[in-house]
Fold these 2 entries.
Entry 1:
Amino acid sequence: MRITRDTLLKLARDFTEKRLTPDRNVTAVFLVGSVRPEDAALPATLDIDLLVIHNGEPPRTREIVKISNEIHLDISYENIKDYAQPRELRGDPWRGWSMWDPLLLHQKGRFFEYTQSIVRAQFDEPENVLKRCRAFAAPARAAWNEMLFNPPSASPLKLLSATANAANALATLVGPPLTERNLLANFPSRAETLGLPDLTGKLLQVITATFDVQHIRDLLPQWQDCFLAAAQAPFDLRIHPARLSYYKTAIENQINGNFPATAFWLLLYTWALSSTSGFASTENEQAWQHFLSQTGLNSTHITDRLEALDAFLDTVEETLEQVALENGLA
């Protein structure tokens, strides 16, 4: 299939018309995510993000629908009650940005026009920007505290999730949140915009003591085996058979790009998700544990990683405090 934006829009519209519009409880459907911008760069493998607003409790929270080996739909379902207070959405980093400029595919009534008009009003006011940033900073610091005082809780996935939140606490000062596929790929430009270019290196120090591109290439087969095993019954739909090529192609492209460390983040994060499934073979589990040992993410070196996370969070908190002070919000 030749991937163009028109092709992707038709896929989204056809799915909405056939699967979602007939449901009387579906209030609205939006195209969101990386395909939404008209000038979006289209990688070889991608997902089409749909947000479905449901009148009442939705039957599911997320659904993955495979279109081809290169394309899948990633559908989020949310209760309309979560959008009942549009002013509060200005401080919500995910829902607020989703309502900022989605492509409306279907609605009943005038839900979208009403909600978006209120969300956009004062969206860029420093108070609301800081609310969105602190929505990431607070859970990152809370996770750090828990891991510090209860080291057995410091799993790789928990550390990485806290790291992603810490990175997004800064990234959302100047744009929408970064998703797991491109978090480390897009973070450097956000840090540059903030005048904090050194933070990319500090972010890397949180997740690894060493970095070896060849090591990532060598580990791809074991990573893939673990991913496919976890995808048999995914507890998290980010680990779904339709998303294997989505991640693998990105990892391979990032390895060969100007900043190959971005591939390390994506492989590490998705492997951590896969490893929690309990479906990994003994061989794959041994490969995972060896990987953690070599990169300094095992229990032996967790103190170093927590110190690096603490230092990164200190910078995040100081930056947010400075923004608050400059705008009379301290």
Entry 2:
Amino acid sequence: MRVLVTGGAGFIGSALVRYLVSEVGADVLNIDKLTYAGNLASLKAIENAPNYRFLKADICDRSAVSSAFEEFRPDYVMHLAAESHVDRSITGAADFIETNINGTFSMLEAARQYWQGLPADEKAAFRMLHVSTDEVYGSLGEDGLFAETTPYDPSSPYSASKAASDHLATAWERTYGLPVIISNCSNNYGPFHFPEKLIPLIILNALERKPLPVYGSGSNIRDWLYVDDHARALWLIVQRGRLGEKYNVGGRNERRNIDVVQRVCAIMDEVRPGRAPHSDLISYVTDRPGHDARYAIDATKLETELGWKALENFDSGIRKTVDWYLENAWWWQPLREGVYSGERLGVLKKV
């Protein structure tokens, strides 16, 4: 089985590649541009595996992508490459439009050209998974869950660009018959997560006794999904999901942001006790513009149709995550020192 993965040096992408290479035994081609969030160190465990290869390329480079299709001849395509940080999209939306929309268009067209030229049996077996986010649905009230039929209502440049890419994927399936499936996931967490995101930022700041920034009152709610559970879900979806359908992937672990931070602090108090509790480091900061109040995924379709179930609950997953960061400074220390040191992102200048 040959699987082409885009964005495989990112957080979710690297978890997927490690799973496919080590657990599934698939032949994997990882295409990644290696922006600030792409890190080949995340693939150190499988970098020399005979069933793994890497191509540094931009998905917007149609020629490079088309050549990769023709040379590797994938059975499946799993498209994860994207600009993904909401804060960065607030002050630098252009990169999100280029990669998430134009890059997805490039991937769809390259896949269509390749698929149309396949022999009948290979053409019937080919599948493409477009990996997206629950942020396309906008903000929930106190009740309810995002379903696959929930209307799109994106709030940030990031979520708007992902919503556009989802619509492109749907249109290419409906117009051209390209065998595409879409997945929309809740907030991922776990090992190898770039330190600008909430959980790794809080862990590392707590370790270094730096302020722990919490947006607004910390009341925003997210549904947390352990990244390895997500990787398993994606492999199930690309193999067995119904073509033209969407599948929501969520961990059924809703938490307020402040509760996530408090839980990390409690674990840090156990494993790195100090004179004062880590919660004393919590610092409430000005909220993010357009900050959605609540996300929560209904994963019933995925669970009932494909038999997927998250193996980690939040308590087990967050402890594994904290332990991993404490034990793997070799991975995150170079990022903290040379790429992102923990500064606030996405702050608009006052006019």
